[in-house]
Design goal:
Layout lengths: L1 E5 L2 E7 H11 L4 E4 L6 H9 L3 E4 L3 H15 L3 E5 L3 H16 L3 E7 L2 H5 L10 H5 L5 E5 L5 H13 L5 E7 H5 L1 E3 H7 L14 H12 L4 E5 L1 H5 L3 H11 L3 E3 L19 H7 L2 E5 L20 E6 L13 E4 L2 H11 L9 H22 L8 H12 L6 E5 L2 H9 L8 E3 L9 H12 L3 E6 H7 L3 H6 L4 E7 L29 H5 L4 E5 L2 H14 L3 E6 L25
Parallel strand pairs: 3-4, 3-5, 5-6, 6-8, 7-8, 10-11, 10-12, 12-13, 13-14, 15-16, 15-17, 17-18, 18-20, 19-20
Antiparallel strand pairs: 1-2, 2-9
Helix pairs in contact: 1-2, 3-4, 3-18, 10-14, 12-14, 16-17, 16-22
């Protein structure tokens, strides 16, 4: 900043870059995740100068994932800063994933000269970023003039967190960032956004319709989605479920909204409740592929649906929703709890008895798997060792990705508190792990345990350096069976190249963290894993445990092999 004298007045000059930072700070932004370079390096420096924490990553996709999960946890838009063109594209995957999952996030990218881009004259990292971003996010905006910075930031914040949350792209041209402007005049344009996510109240008629239908049910079921967890309406959700006695089935990121060991949990009887429930309440959950679209052999074809969602466009997406309730989850659940005085709903205990019998059978099957003494370890006896340690902790965040590692961890590791299981969500994408782990550790300061398959870890493993640089309390656990799904698949040609699903059989991922000063562990037995995980968590230091898993174990595509088209596989000669 400088003071420059011009005729008849003294002007305090600043630039667009400083005004962007001031606008973000005025709206409560306290953390930015990103990768710096032309033209946004000084933006990160100025943000840090005024007290905004800047978390620098090794790849923009991980920075974007960290911003997205920060948004999910805090209900404020997570901010990801990227450079132009390739950096923007790297962040765009995380932005699209945030939108698909309903995570509030803003990706801010610098961009090249508009005039040159529009004539395609070949500028440095030339790309029409805003128009490329539009199909992959909830909204996209470009700020061209310093006097529009406050408006652009306000529009991005509102778009990210109002209605169904999602990803927003904000394009800052190089010319804007470098624009000289009068600081006093620009400060007068800045403001704090008022009520950026206003409540959306459900209509009384829709609430009555839903509760009347639920009161008629013989075998009701509540499915909890991550939208219910995001809403932070925990007490009213718990009150409604416990007062009605209705069994609940949590989707993956809704685990812990009520404890997994809650007596009304139907998680261990998933197949039975879906096939027998006559009225199903979709509470912040969508009838997408994760619920077989509400159709087919997994579902009772004669059931009826109640759906609570902030976006009415979601209703009737796959099945008729007979009682749609359009409104934010917090407001809707407040109305549902109040409505119990008019509709004294009480689930038939015989329905819960039926569920408990099925749970007992499935729990016994799981107990047999967990009691395995197989050497090398399989997924289940390794997870038993992890479970024994984590059941004593409870106050931690669990990040999870992989195929078999994801599916089996979800089934074995109980969650007891809301919004603490963070995984690949709606798209089922790999590579979210390290970004989610770092993002959750930064915004909460809590211990994070991040469990990856070896293939999934490879997408973002270099971020181990980031977690060591910031000295974060993250323990990374890599289930290493030497492959994608498993490590012993043959090369069908009989050649010496590894098969398409084979990774290095003797890889030692624990050695990576040693290069950056973190703590490393290598476990080949459940006892070694128990000791390693206990020590790593107690240290509160960045740590990584390489868990040796039998390369022959693992299902193709995990639990969703039906989605992976198969040819007739012939054995190698």
């Amino acid at each position: 900043m400088s003071t420059e004298t011009i005729p008849n007045q003294t002007q305090n000059l600043t630039d667009g870059m400083h005004i962007v930072v001031d606008a973000l700070k005025k709206n409560g932004v306290d953390t930015i995740f990103g990768v710096v370079g032309i033209p946004v390096t000084d933006l990160a420096r100025h943000a840090q100068e005024v007290g905004i924490r800047y978390i620098g990553f090794r790849h923009e996709q991980s920075a974007g994932n960290a911003a997205a999960i920060a948004g999910y946890i805090t209900k404020k838009p997570g901010i990801c800063l990227t450079v132009s063109a390739p950096g923007f594209l790297n962040g765009l995957t995380a932005l699209a994933n945030a939108t698909t999952n309903g995570f509030p996030m803003i990706q801010i990218s610098g961009s090249s000269d508009r005039a040159i881009i529009d004539l395609q004259q070949g500028d440095y990292e030339e790309m029409d970023q805003m128009n490329i971003a539009k199909p992959f996010c909830k909204a996209a905006y470009r700020i061209n003039k310093p006097e529009d910075i406050a408006t652009g930031i306000a529009r991005a914040i509102r778009a990210a967190i109002s209605g169904r949350p999602g990803g927003v792209y904000l394009d800052l041209t190089t010319a804007l960032l470098a624009s000289a402007c009068d600081q006093d005049a620009m400060e007068k344009t800045l403001y704090t956004v008022v009520d950026p996510a206003p409540a959306s109240l459900p209509s009384p008629a829709s609430v009555d319709r839903a509760l009347a239908l639920l009161a008629s049910a013989k075998k009701p079921l509540i499915i909890l989605g991550k939208g219910a967890a995001y809403a932070q309406a925990d007490e009213n959700i718990k009150t409604f479920i416990e007062k009605t006695g209705i069994p609940f089935l949590p989707m993956s990121m809704a685990k812990g909204l009520l404890p997994d060991d809650h007596p009304q949990s139907a998680a261990a009887a998933r197949g039975l409740v879906l096939q027998n429930a006559d009225v199903v309440v979709l509470l912040g959950a969508r009838l997408n592929w994760l619920l077989a679209h509400g159709k087919g052999k997994h579902w009772n074809p004669d059931n009826h649906f109640i759906q609570l969602d902030v976006d009415a466009m979601e209703f009737d997406s796959n099945r008729q929703i007979e009682a749609p309730v359009a409104g934010d989850i917090a407001s809707s659940m407040e109305a549902f709890v109040a409505g119990l005085s008019k509709y004294p709903i009480k689930s038939d205990p015989a329905w819960m008895d039926m569920i408990n019998k099925d749970k007992a059978v499935n729990d016994q099957k799981m107990a047999v798997k967990l009691a395995s003494t197989a050497e090398p370890m399989n997924f289940f006896n390794a997870l038993k060792a992890v479970k024994d340690v984590l059941d004593k902790q409870r106050d931690y965040y669990l990040v999870n990705e992989g195929a078999n590692t994801l599916d089996d961890t979800r089934n074995v590791i109980n969650m007891y508190e809301p919004r603490k299981r963070l995984d690949c969500g709606t798209w089922g994408v790999m590579g979210i792990g390290m970004g989610f782990a770092i993002g959750s550790a930064i915004v909460t300061g809590k211990q994070v345990v991040s469990i990856h398959g070896d293939s999934a870890f490879g997408f973002s493993g270099m971020e181990v350096e980031t977690m060591c640089r910031f000295k974060l309390p993250i323990t990374v656990v890599v289930f290493n069976n030497g492959g994608i799904y498993k490590g012993d698949s043959p090369n069908l040609s009989g050649g010496t190249d590894p098969s398409p699903t084979t990774l290095m059989p003797d890889a030692r991922y624990d050695k990576i963290i040693e290069a950056f000063g973190g703590d490393s562990y290598y476990a080949t037995t459940p006892d070694e894993l128990t000791k390693a995980l206990t020590a790593a968590i107690a240290s509160k230091k960045p740590s990584l445990i390489d868990v040796k898993i039998d390369p022959s174990v693992g299902l193709e595509s995990g639990h969703i092999g039906n989605l992976n088209p198969k040819t007739v596989i012939k054995e190698a000669h």
